[in-house]
Amino acid sequence: MKKILAIMMMTVMAVSMFAAEAVSAERSKLAGELLTIMRQEQQMKNAFQMMRNMQQKMLPQMLEQNGVKLTADQQAEQKKMMDEVMNIVEEEMSWNKLKPIVVEAYATTFSEQELKDLTTFFKSPAGQNFLDKTPMLQQQMMSSIQQMAMNMNKKVGELVQKRAAELQKKQVDQK
């Protein structure tokens, strides 16, 4: 009896796994189509460019806020390093490397019908308008977020300086 039950359970599991793989393959196909319609690869390129631009503006401002003045040579070196870092980020997070992960995430998060509905929406004039305006929307948000980050970094810098001074005082007092 136990053997029959074990065989039945294994059969149900095997059928379930086969069904899940078939659904997953169809969902993956639909997710891939949706991501193409959503211009996800171009969105990634735009995001990297915005990140690159933000870093080039933000780092010198952060340094200045913390009283650090770079010479022209140091600024050139800092820019070169940031370009190298962003090149690594763009290479390691390229669309070719991310696409399978994103497709899987969409395929497992959305049902087949939801993927079809999303595809229909993004093919529609409203969906295309949304995609056309997404870079402007991101730019607006990025400017605000950059200002928030600058304010946050200033506060963090002040806290670090305060704590460093406290630690130095404590070390002096212990001597």
What is the compact description of this entry?
By secondary structure, this protein is mainly alpha-helical.
Q: How would you sum up this structure, described in words?
A:
- There is one protein chain.
- The chain is mainly alpha-helical and 175 residues long.
- It has one domain.
- It has 6 helices and no strands.
- The chain is elongated.
Key features of this structure:
single chain, 175 residues, mainly alpha, 6 helices, elongated, DUF2059, signal, DUF2059 domain-containing protein
Compile the SSE list and pairings.
Blueprint: H1 2-37, H2 40-65, H3 72-92, H4 95-109, H5 112-123, H6 125-174
Compressed to H and E, one letter per element, the order equals HHHHHH
Low-confidence stretches: 8-22
Class based on secondary structure composition and strand pairing: mainly alpha
Outline:
elongated
Average pLDDT rating: 83
- The radius of gyration over CA amounts to 26 Å
Largest sheet, described in full? none
N-C termini distance: 79 Å
Total domains, how many? 1
For the secondary structure, the number of strands is 0
